[in-house]
């Protein structure tokens, strides 16, 4: 089974809402009905930190301040083993007024972008709707692994 590695940015506002995206149909995929966190696959020979910085800039035009690794998500999808690394992005205020027209990949990839309550939307991965993200960030505990193989 082949493997795909991706990174996701966890931007949490003061009300506990997450910066979420809903993706358009692109790259042979249909438009998504679910929300997810900004991010994407890492490039060959790219570090996780370089990948999360690049992905956040591509999708929001904002340079992230990268904090702790919060979660690792392992699952199977489309015949591939998938790993997603979720990093806390600490400069939340910078993401409150995003100009998607300035982001290089937003027009092609993003249908919607908003701060949303993960309990009130259909978000993937599902653990984002049940985790107390604010508490997890404050506790400064090691990253949690969610594995669905």
Write a short abstract of this structure.
This protein has one domain: Nucleoside Triphosphate Pyrophosphohydrolase (Alpha-Beta Complex), CATH 3.90.79.10. It has a five-stranded mixed β-sheet with strand order 3-1-5-4-7, covered by helices on one side.
How is this structure best described in words?
The chain has one domain: Nucleoside Triphosphate Pyrophosphohydrolase, CATH 3.90.79. The termini are close together. It has 149 residues and is α/β, with parallel strands linked by helices. It is built from four helices and seven strands; from the N terminus they run E-E-E-H-E-E-H-E-H-H-E. Helix content is 19%, strand content 35%. The radius of gyration is 14 Å and the shape is globular. The model has no long low-confidence stretch (mean pLDDT 93). Strands 3-1-5-4-7 form a five-stranded mixed beta sheet, with helices on one face. Strands 2-6 form a two-stranded antiparallel ribbon. A hairpin with a 2-residue loop joins strand 4 and strand 5.
What attributes does this structure have?
single chain, 149 residues, alpha/beta, Nucleoside Triphosphate Pyrophosphohydrolase
